[in-house]
Amino acid sequence: MVHHGQGAARLLRYARPGAGADLCDRPSPHGLAHLPRRSLPVSRPDGRGLGRRGSIALMAALLALPLVGLVGLATDGARAWLLRSRLHTALDAAALAGARNINLQVAQRDAEVAGMFWTNFGVADSGFTAAQATGHAWRGFLDAMTTLDPPVAVDASTMQVSAHAVLDTTFTRVLGIPSVHVAVSAQAKRADLGMELSLVLDVTGSMDTNCSTPSDRTASSCGVTTVPREPGTTTASRNNNMDLLRLAAADLINILYGSRETVSNLWVSIVPFTTTVNLGPNRRDWLGGSAASSLDSDFSPTSWRGCVEARVGYDGAPDDGDRRDYTPSEVPFRPFLYKSTLGLYTLNGAAVPGDNDWARKLWNATTSGDNAITEDWYLYRGNYQVGPNVGCPATVVLPLTAKKTTVLDTIQSLRPSSRGGTMGNLGLQAGWFTLSPRWRGAWALGAAPAGQATALPLDYNAPYMRKVIVMMTDGTNQWYDTPYGFPGACTETTKSTASYPTSPAPGPAQAVRPIACPAANQVGSVTAASGAPAITNNADYTGYGRLKDGRLGTGVTNNSQAQTEINNRVAALCAAIKSAGITIYTVVLDTSGSSTSAATRTLYQGCATTPQHYVFVSQPTDLRTAFQQIGTQLANLRLVR
């Protein structure tokens, strides 16, 4: 028997009918006899061979429908999987947005959720109203009819969102499946990781916009708005930057605390600054011995409010005392004392105004009166105030505290303080004091909080903790020169008999300018008493003393040079704070569009941890938005389901 190989099989497969005879007539190359001659049976005479071919065609036709269905099922299944995946992505983003904004008003929170969902689901510009964004079906990814359900706040820190979609099928319609339903949910929870937060806030006189003159004080726009105590509370501000700052800072606190009085492992400090900071009159033990012993006599008949000077530029002070976090025990403070200029400057034997004429008796419009200097003279009088504490913020630095009420009460108490200028470096440094573990013994804030190894401020590397500074300023660092008296400029050549209103200002009405400055051509003839500050190139008293004192360096003799040097010290301080592991946010407010230089903007953008941690605000109402955004960024989030 001969076994044909594959080649022979292929030959037979394609041979014409009757070709077998030709093969049998050919001699075998091996000398073997061939099989009997046979023809290839293509079809049988009764036609049954042709019927088999028809059966195959019928079977193929019968199988076509399920095969198409199977292919369609795979295709529509893949589309449904893609839809579910996109829903998951969009809902995760929406849940995070909801948890981040959970303490806002419900309408505002839900708008954030809906906007995040529809944007990620492929409807970037939906044009939906707030009412339409949830609970209504709209076509989105893959043209599926999709509904975002109203978000649900499970508790004070957890947000749940869900959505469902109906996807029209393609091929599987032939199987009687016209659509596929997909439902997805997500849940996000604010983890509330631990944080020590310091709000460093500019309370200089320039923050007192539209409320700087005596007549302004009677306007309702210059009143003080009560800060909101609960998240999502709508409170309209008055026409005043200081009022806006109070509301903005309160917004941030309400976002972090929600309706809770305390949050586990959250502590906040408040640091108001001008050209100095107020550490509090109860901190006498932080002063040098001789300074502390003369406080009562130096400030009589009032008292030391608590402000201190920069620890640099005088005998015994380190060269970097305003750029490091030295404790009071390492480098004691000197009290901020704006000495009286009364009687120090004369013209032809007659008194001319000094820039801070105060004594036990005050002057009224014509003669000396019987009203002794009191704290009333610091309030509502702007650049016309006098006394030993001029330029000192009224609000004392609040060290780290856990209670929301205490923090909001301190924010409510913020008031602008005129004179001196703006020195952001001293405010920033004091913010560092409140977060530095080196200051733990100085603040003496009690035993270690529950779950922590040390008392506050915690170590820089404490597990699951962050240290953050949010600094806000409204202008360029500068050394201000009040033009109302010597040793600086004295250009008010007419005295004023105008007086401050008795309401809302406390105490008796007093004159604005009881003595006029000499004419410009006579200024050169003004003489200074022995030991009085020099007249040429001088300015207000600040945390660095008088400009003429040279405590910023011997080469600093005018305001422009002082501004450059202060900016250099801000930059150095920012670098030191960030190298310690503290995150810095900076907010620069310039509602006039011209009061803040490009150099100042660049300075504070570089001070921030990243450019994204810097915010420039040109519209007053945007200040609250900026603080709200920072608050939501500080709220730690995690997806839990």
From TrEMBL:
Name recorded for this polypeptide: Putative Flp pilus-assembly TadG-like N-terminal domain-containing protein
Biased amino acid composition, Polar residues: 211-224
Gene3D superfamilies found in the cross-reference section: von Willebrand factor, type A domain
Region annotation (Disordered) ranges: 25-47, 211-238
Transmembrane segments annotated in the record for this chain: 56-75
Matches recorded under InterPro entries: Tad_N, vWFA_dom_sf
Taxonomic lineage of the native organism: Bacteria, Pseudomonadati, Pseudomonadota, Alphaproteobacteria, Acetobacterales
Keywords attached to this entry: Membrane, Transmembrane, Transmembrane helix
SUPFAM superfamilies in UniProt: vWA-like
Domain called Putative Flp pilus-assembly TadG-like N-terminal: residue spans: 54-100
